[in-house]
Amino acid sequence: MLNQAHLLWKRLMYVSALPFILTSLPSLAEDAGALYNTPYDVSLGERYFERQCSRCHGFDAKGNDETGAPDLTGRLNRASNEVGIFNVIRNGVPGTAMLPVDSDLPDTQVWQLVAYIESLRYDPNSVQLDGSADSGLALFQGKGECASCHMVRGNGGRLGPDLSRVGESTRPEDLMVAITNPHEDVDPRWWTLEITGPDGITRSGFRMGEDSFSVRIMDTDSNLWSYQKNDIRSIERIERSTMPSYDGSMSENELDDLVAYLFSLRREEN
Ligand code: HEC
Ligand code: HEC
């Protein structure tokens, strides 16, 4: 009796679990890819690539005839999307010099490699944008006051990330999200701490450094404040962006112009 019930239970589990696994696994994997493709992830992926992959694929990832490792900057043979690239890196290509990565390597790092490879395959010249980069530049420095927070090639503020090369690693649709919905996906580097010190005064700023005993923040006037943790009366972490949303304060055309300008920001060719 017990056994029969057990068997039935197992069968039910099997029948109900299978479609769930089949339909949800690929989308989970894609979600994971979308989580680890910020410019920061791309740069970590690049660093790892230089150490572990470049000896075969070359520093520029353009392949190497001697090792037989193919060019990774164009269309790939063995993968047509991020999940496919992930699988090639994770499992290798059996019977070739392309070995699986170390099984201890966390998925996060494999996704960062994928993000780096994806960033190479992205040909900016193939992208058609509605906006004008020149008008976008004028908005960036003028009406939008973006430059008060963002640095581009050494000019601008430090209250947001340096955007000098943001176009290399960020797609136009993601740039649009960054401007219209800045609170999505805020990197911890840009979270705000609100700290009430022993003097009862509350100050807020970006978290610049922290150890077991102390924490340092930088306020919007670029003043640094350092607190001993056991002196702090209260501390609150705000995970929203300090950047305002421009959805509404800019017209659709203006938003397109800003995206076109940001997308044009890449490494300067000498
Ligand atoms: C020992 C040399 C070697 C090393 C190291 C190596 N690869 Fe490869 N890789 C190859 C070869 C050879 C192939 C082609 C395999 C085949 O398809 O026949 C390949 C294929 C690939 C492909 C598929 C290309 C396509 O067109 O589909 C990807 C992606 C890739 N490698 C990424 C990486 C990454 C990322 C690393 C570092 C973690 C790495 N490789 C390290 C030799 C290497
Ligand atoms: C008050 C300061 C401030 C202003 C003004 C501001 N930003 Fe930002 N911006 C930030 C901060 C902080 C972040 C990082 C947190 C986040 O992702 O929102 C950021 C993030 C971004 C990002 C994402 C960068 C990345 O590496 O992913 C883009 C793109 C951007 N801002 C563009 C703009 C544009 C265009 C304007 C003007 C229309 C603007 N910002 C105005 C502070 C500002």
Secondary structure: elements and pairs:
Elements: H1 2-35, H2 39-52, H3 54-57, H4 82-91, H5 107-121, H6 133-141, E1 151-152, E2 155-156, H7 166-169, H8 172-180, E3 192-196, E4 202-210, E5 214-218, E6 224-228, E7 234-238, H9 252-263
Antiparallel strand pairs: 1-2, 3-4, 3-7, 4-5, 5-6
This protein binds heme C (2 copies).
One heme C is lined by residues 39, 140, 144-146, 148-150, 159-161, 163, 166, 170, 175, 178-179, 182, 186, 190, 241-243, 246, 258, 262.
Question: Percentage of helical residues?
Answer: 40-55%
Described by the principal axes of the CA atoms, the overall outline is globular
Low-confidence stretches: 7-27
Largest sheet features = 5 strands, antiparallel
* Extended strand count: 7
Distance between the termini: 79 Å
How much of the polypeptide forms β-strand, as a percent range?
Answer: 5-15%
Mean pLDDT, all residues: 86
Instruction: Provide the CATH architecture of the largest domain.
Output: Orthogonal Bundle
Looking at this structure, what is the CATH superfamily of the largest domain? Cytochrome c-like domain
CATH class of the largest domain: Mainly Alpha
Number of domains: 3
Which strand order do you get reading across the main beta sheet? Answer: 6-5-4-3-7
CATH fold call of the largest domain = Cytochrome Bc1 Complex, Chain D, domain 2
Instruction: Compute the number of helices.
Output: 9
